[in-house]
Amino acid sequence: MIGLVHFLTVAAMVFAIGLYGVLTKRTIIGILMSIELMLNAVNINLIAFSRFITPEALTGQIFAIFTITVAAAEVAVGLAMVFRVYYDRNTVHAARLDEMRW
Amino acid sequence: MNELIYNVAFFIFAAITVAAAIGVVTKSNLVHSALLLALCFIGVSGLYVLLQADFLAAVQILIYNGAIAIVFVLGTMLTRRSARHGTNDTEVNIPSRLVSLVSGLFVIITLGVIATTPWRYSSIEAVQDTPALLAQFILTDYMVVMEVSAVLLLAAMIGAIVLAKGVEE
What we know:
The complex is a heterodimer. Chain A is 75% helix and 0% strand. By secondary structure, chain A is mostly helical.
């Protein structure tokens, strides 16, 4: 019988994979992709809780909709910043962006 | 019989999701990573269908596959450098084995917490007609949140345009 625990397990694995990607990837775009993986894991958790703990309220699904909204906004702004950084410094490697001043 | 199909579908979608996620962080070509990210999102939307969140499964496909994955591919192609290195290598200065160990430890601890928590399962059946109910909730109880997220999207759109094009243009 597939229950809440199985979905939480999948979400935990995807979240850990995203965590690994955020910590080890070389380019900013790879880091952004890993952040998307982590956000998806959180969404799986929210919807699984909504299905198995409070199936009558749908609060988790509404929360997941707003999470998706924020994720879309984050990708738009994040990639715009990547373009800007690439235009200014001709690199997208996170390790080379180590100075705060212009 | 029905439950068997449900279980098989769950394991297929879970395997797609996890395998594609592993591919996203291990592939050394960013375009391959972006396409695997799209596959991972499809697996996640299959999990949403199994959780009887049909509207969110559609939203997942529309927004993540239709917009976010495409934008990632576009971003990869617009910022390409030399073909000497892979475009999505792991950072050499970071001990990636240690990081993967920490991530694995995170999974094990989380699984321990999940297994020991006494969940208060509800025995009520899931709502069948979710889009109508979701619309009702969003336009009544969560109205302010919806307005705030609309403003957030507008601000993100303007901010992205200004950041990418520059103010003076």
